[in-house]
Specification:
Blueprint (H helix, E strand, L loop, with lengths): L4 H19 L25 E10 L5 E10 L2 E9 L6 E10 L2 E10 L2 E12 L2 E4 L2 E4 L4 E4 L7 E6 L6
């Protein structure tokens, strides 16, 4: 059977097209998936809203917990941040701020011992976890602050956004 070269070329191009489209998984080149947290750098593309939840436990028996639920749309971040140490006064409140790439610069408005207060908190999404800059104490007034010069040290593990613990 003698097939003209033009037909072979067309069939080859069609097969090649099918192979390329099957391997792309429906994603455009350079586009990132938001299916998992570990693939979320940068956090979001324009006009998408995504919810993330994180948990940190510490203490000799992992009895102290911190829970963070974030909703991010464009550059705006809001959510819930609760720090609940075992047999101590908890801090429960909300966060609001901005995302710049993987860095979240937020103001935490919380209640502790019946008093409301605010504190700047800075997080960074790093390898599927969230890390926070630790608090320092301003010796002039005794208040906790987040210093820009601090490194990101406190890790929070990603958890399903079902319900707060």
């Amino acid at each position: 059977m003698n097939i003209p070269m033009n037909t072979v070329t067309r069939l080859s191009m069609i097969c090649l097209g099918f192979l390329v489209s099957c391997n792309s998984g429906g994603q455009k080149e350079g586009e990132q998936s938001n299916d998992t947290l570990s693939q979320a750098d940068p956090l979001l593309t324009v006009d998408q809203e995504q919810k993330y939840c994180f948990l940190r436990t510490e203490g000799t028996e992992q009895q102290d917990s911190s829970f963070l639920q974030l909703t991010i749309r464009n550059e705006t971040v809001n959510g819930i941040y609760n720090v609940i140490p075992h047999e101590k006064d908890a801090r429960r409140g909300t966060v609001l701020g901005k995302a710049a790439g993987e860095v979240l610069d937020l103001v935490w408005t919380f209640t502790q011992e019946g008093m409301q207060d605010t504190l700047r908190v800075v997080f960074k999404l790093q390898n599927g976890t969230l890390v926070r800059k630790p608090f320092s104490v301003d010796t002039s007034n005794g208040r906790q602050v987040t210093l820009d010069s601090s490194g990101f040290l406190e890790a929070y593990e990603a958890v399903d956004c079902v319900e707060e613990p």
